[in-house]
């Protein structure tokens, strides 16, 4: 039996993580995040514990949007060469290039939830933020199906999320996020990486999948 409260918790956590991996927070969203930090929904994992600790330290140190935005761009290559490429294809493809077979597989998976990348053919579909959002959306759709009394549809959406996690997100994100945590120059970005690792573990346990390893 699916637990609506757990689905809601997963959807909320993955939505926030997806947003911040795609784009650094502005002043308003950062202030809101600091206010709600102590209520982070995905708890009970080493990643969540370490991520929350680093985020609290960043909040106490007064890290501002400019510093976080600079670190985000430095890490993910928004303004120059990426320290840690945020794309699945770079980490899993034999040539280490974007828009390879993994990108196309992810694009096809998005269609199962009627999703698409914001800038297809200009920015790869397999960005870490977009893949995290797919998990969030699978949970949202499952919740909506439960609200409409359709357990079968809810279970189908959960399976879509679990399959995507097994075939894509869980196969590369742990290693990538571990590198982000090591390379980050702000507590926020390091904390974001750890919170994301915790979220992956939480979803894997929810979906009865092996917890992905952080090792290369």
TrEMBL record:
InterPro entries linked: DMSO/NO3_reduct_chaperone, TorD-like_sf, TorD/DmsD_chaperones
Segments passing through the bilayer: none
Coiled coil residues, start to end: none
Gene3D superfamilies: TorD-like
Iron-sulfur recorded as keyword: no
Keyword Chaperone set for record: yes
Keyword field: Chaperone
Top-rank lineage group of the source organism: Bacteria
Protein name: Molecular chaperone TorD family protein
Organism: Georgenia yuyongxinii
